[in-house]
Design brief:
The protein is α+β, with helices and mostly antiparallel strands. It is 44% helix and 22% strand. Strands 3, 8, 9, 10, 11, 12, 15, 16, 17, 18, 19 and 20 form a 12-stranded antiparallel beta sheet that branches. A 4-stranded parallel beta sheet has the order 5-4-6-7, with helices on both faces. It has a two-stranded antiparallel ribbon with strand order 1-2. Strand 6, helix 10 and strand 7 form a beta-alpha-beta unit. Helix 3 runs antiparallel to helix 4 and helix 4 crosses helix 7.
Length: 530
């Protein structure tokens, strides 16, 4: 008696059950058939109102012009650093996607463009693309830009996503691509945005800076808070109304630069917490007053660069308001240089860094031009000017007389943000991040090499070390010293060190961590009320 195994076959000594499956060629044939059916369905279907819109939209996205214009709009109307950063990330993602598609994708799969017989003439592009069809570069650029923006700002990402989807659909609607070209292009574009994020993390990927956690009073709506505003700082004037609206119980004092020191001292004597709206120089003065009077500091970014606020994770007014309402704060180190500026009668303080050499000259030139052309353009022009200089700093450093182009001492260690060091993850590590660019020829190349080098490196051009204190002697008269964006004359001898954890600063926890912390602190009874 013979036994039959239904739907089975014996091949190379093994039994394969079930009906024969499709091979790779059959799968490609099925996908190609689906692709053509969907393309034909789109081409033959009437889309009310789409004929005058989608072809023009598709044309506007040529060479990324639509997305560059959108990025400029986001940067101009976004009203904050997060929006500008989202625009820059979107453009960077688009650039990577475009380069990948044009240099690799289209050269790897040489697929012919669809036949336009079924596409109505009024839908067709006036100038038909001559490159290969797979994958769609327009769809890749649209997805890359929208994804990059969304990774940095969900609000702007939601606003851009429908436009990006419309551009992708328009490529099939006008007959420029098959649906699979669009889908694969969009997937590659989104992947490019995530690749950029892998190189330069978004703010929400970075650890919340500052430690250890400090107890600070909860001041909902600004109760017992005095906020001092420097009228002349960057965007401080525009922020005053926002502060008053967000913190109606706070006392807000606006003053001119010549009165800022006295106003901060008076405010620190009578408040539970001292607030400050201004740039890094103004925050520097407020930090000294807060440390002397042992009150916590609330920083509202209102300057051009706002390095200290951003390293705290504060980008907008509501970030500080959230920390004030919950009492979230950290202790941070306060850098010192002795002797301090003339007339202070004590050490000078710095929250970010102190430097000698070409950087003080850069700051001086930037401050001269920024009221006329803006902070960033002024910074670029100042950098171009100082990099052409041939006047190194003469000082005795580590027991040797040296010619230095730059001596930089950062308050805590700066970490890489992409190719260059740019952010501190720990504001209480007790260390100075010292970087030196040695004197010699081609100062511009030396400074660029130092910027691109690792955070701790030594070479004939530059050196970077971490240490707790630094003494510099024999500084030539007339040498400038910069600290937190301010410039003064350097003394002949300088001692730079740290006051560890000397300042308490309000710092918002990320939203999800804040909710988790409050849930844990509430206990079973409190959770029942939540």
């Amino acid at each position: 008696m013979s036994h039959e195994i239904p739907h089975a076959s014996i091949r190379h000594g093994s039994i394969r059950h079930g009906p024969p499956g499709p091979g790779p060629a059959r799968i490609l044939e099925l996908l190609s058939g689906w692709d053509r059916r969907v393309f034909h369905s789109v081409a033959t279907r009437h889309w009310p109102g789409a004929d005058p819109v989608l072809p023009r939209l598709s044309h506007s996205a040529n060479h990324g012009l639509l997305w560059f214009g959108t990025a400029a709009t986001i940067g101009a109307l976004g009203g904050g650093t997060r929006a500008r950063r989202a625009a820059v990330r979107g453009v960077a993602s688009l650039a990577l996607a475009s380069a990948t598609i044009n240099m690799v994708g289209k050269r790897s799969v040489r697929r012919a463009r669809p036949v336009l017989d079924a596409v109505p003439l009024m839908r067709q592009l006036k100038r038909q693309p001559f490159t290969t069809s797979f994958p769609s570069g327009h769809s890749a650029s649209a997805a890359a830009f929208a994804t990059g923006v969304a990774l940095e700002s969900k609000g702007w990402g939601a606003a851009v996503a429908p436009l990006a989807a419309a551009v992708a659909v328009s490529r099939v609607y006008t007959g420029a691509h098959y649906p699979s070209d669009v889908l694969v292009g969009a997937a590659l574009g989104a992947g490019a945005a995530f690749a950029v994020r892998g190189l330069v993390p978004t703010r929400d990927q970075l650890p919340a800076p500052g430690r250890p956690h400090a107890d600070a009073p909860e001041l909902p709506e600004g109760l017992d808070l005095v906020v001092v505003v420097n009228r002349s700082s960057g965007s401080a004037a525009a922020q005053v109304g926002l502060v008053r609206d967000a913190l109606p119980l706070a006392e807000v004092l606006e003053c001119d630069p010549q009165d800022i020191t006295a106003t901060l001292e008076q405010a620190a004597r009578r408040c539970r917490a001292l607030g400050v709206v201004g740039g890094d120089g103004t925050v520097n003065l407020a930090a000294g007053a807060a440390a002397r009077h042992r009150v916590p500091l609330a920083v509202f970014p209102g300057g051009t660069l706002n390095h200290f606020a951003y390293d705290l994770g504060i980008e907008e007014i509501h970030d500080t308001c959230r920390a004030l309402a919950t009492g979230d704060a950290v202790r941070v180190d306060l850098g010192r240089f002795t002797p301090g500026p003339e007339g202070t009668g004590g050490p000078g303080y710095f929250l970010n860094n102190v430097s000698l050499g070409v950087y003080p000259e850069l700051v001086r030139i930037r401050e001269r031009w920024s009221p006329w052309i803006g902070g960033w353009p002024a910074g670029v022009l100042a950098a171009l000017k100082v990099l052409r200089g041939e006047h190194p700093l003469e000082a005795e450093f580590h027991g040797r007389r040296r010619a230095l182009w730059l001596l930089f001492a950062g308050n805590c260690t700066y970490q890489r943000m992409g190719p260059t060091p740019g952010r501190r993850f720990d504001l209480a590590d007790g260390l100075l991040d010292v970087r030196v660019v040695h004197g010699g020829r081609l100062p511009g190349l030396r400074l660029i090499a130092a910027a691109l080098a690792g955070p701790l490196s030594r070479s004939a051009v530059h050196a970077a070390v971490r240490q707790r204190r630094l003494r510099i002697t024999g500084i030539a008269p007339g040498t400038l010293l910069a600290y937190d964006g301010e410039v003064t004359d350097a003394p002949g001898e300088l001692l730079i060190d740290k006051a560890d954890e000397a300042l308490t600063v309000y710092r918002p926890l990320p939203l999800w961590r804040g909710v988790t912390a409050r849930w844990a602190a509430a206990g079973p009874a409190g959770r029942g009320r939540c």
